[in-house]
Amino acid sequence: MENITKIDTVQHYCDLFGIEALHPLISVVDCDAMPPIRHSRRLYNIYAVLLKDTECGSMSYGRSLYDYEKGTVLFAAPGQVMGAPDDGRLHQPAGWAVVFHPELLRGTPLARLMKDYTFFSYNANEALHLSDDERKIFEECVQKIQAELQYPIDKHSKSLIIDNLKLFLDHTIRFYDRQFITRETLNSDLLARFEALLDDYFHLGKPREEGLPGVQYFADKLCLSPNYFSDLVRKETGESALKHIQQKMLNVAKEHVFNTTKSFSEISDELGFPYPQHFSRWFKKMTGSTPKEYRG
Questions:
Q1: Pair 70, 125: CB distance under 8 Å
Q2: Which of 155, 188, 285, 290 is most buried by its number of CB atoms within 10 A?
Q3: What kind and span of H or E run contains 60?
Q4: What pLDDT, on a 0 to 100 scale, did the predictor assign at position 10?
Q5: Using an 8 Å Cβ cutoff, are 59 and 23 in contact?
Q6: Where are the alpha helices (DSSP H) in 35-128?
Q7: Would you place residue 279 in the very low, low, confident or very high pLDDT band (cuts 50, 70, 90)?
Q8: CB 214: neighbour CB atoms within 10 A?
Q9: How far apart are CA 21 and CA 53, in angstroms?
Q10: To the nearest 5 percent, what fractions of the chain are helix, strand and coil?
Q11: CA angle 6-7-12, nearest 5°?
């Protein structure tokens, strides 16, 4: 059975790669300065942003394998497993890493914003690929964080580090927006497949067997992470994937209620609601009328 190395702290990460930790809760790592290392799979209990500047072949990210290109940026949140299988050889890392502990964010505005940085839970095939200009901006942000870490820790350190880290993460959102735009053809195809899957879900009677449709179901069918799928749909349409699913459910529900003589209990069952009263409350929330009032 393959061993998975747990990384619980920034110090642990730095020790693992033989580098000095300048701050207990955040570190900027120049991978070129690392000694050669053996590949391994690692469980991150800290946040990590990794720019891979070497051809490292097939790496695992969660349960998936991905062939990384040079210049790929990967994001790991606490609880994620990432790394390459040990092939018995030493490898020279290249690129850089920014690692930080969740405790760094405690009591700061950034702690409340972390949920908005959904790219930390994207799949490997949804990694960020930087243009040359974007890479320069990224590296400037990293250098600002690194420069602040060179100063002795004082009462200003945390706020300045947090501000620069937030700038870094905000730029990441901008660059992902660009990547969504440059993949417009691919995204349009994914949206078309999503619409077809949504139609089939109701046409084939899946709600009765599998329950109410959710974002996870369609993300899995499209081989995307739920967050990436949701962000893609929102970028392309201005609305969330969940809202699209809810709107489709509502259209189907209206047809059943208005154009059939089925009981509301039968309709509720066909649409995947656990109880008729749940269907009735949902329908009124969505339309302002109960099913009975809507049928007239």
A1: no
A2: 290
A3: strand 58-61
A4: 96
A5: no
A6: 109-113
A7: very high
A8: 14
A9: 22
A10: 55, 15, 30
A11: 125
